[in-house]
Amino acid sequence: MANKLSAVIIMGFAIFSLVSVTSAFSGTATYYTVYTPSACYGYEDEGTMIAAASEGIYNNGGACGKMYKITCTGATNAGVTQPCTGASVTVKVVDLCPSPGCQGTFDLSQEAFSQIANTNAGKVYIDYTP
Fold this sequence. Notes:
Blueprint: H1 2-22, E1 25-32, E2 50-54, H2 55-58, E3 67-75, E4 88-97, E5 106-109, H3 110-116, E6 124-129
Parallel strand pairs: 1-5, 2-4
Antiparallel strand pairs: 1-6, 2-5, 3-4, 3-6
């Protein structure tokens, strides 16, 4: 009986892990080119695989330092009909993308954006996971 219970618990954990890994959130991404100062780190250089998060994700600084995997899923305009490269990028949140000026869920560094999409697109649909 104990072996069966252990097997059920292990299977349940495995299924839960698969569901949580495959669940992504949808949003949009834009890009920016001036990386300092940032809301999280001031003038510290945090590299180029970075992002500014919209207010909901930023959570009053709670997202600072968190990593997100971002994948382009499609075009938001007719300018570049197939902008996605097929790649994903992992970025570190270093800044706030404040509204009303913020145009996306994430404002990626130009280097990060170019990994997932043609920069001529300017804005793309994305899936993201923490």
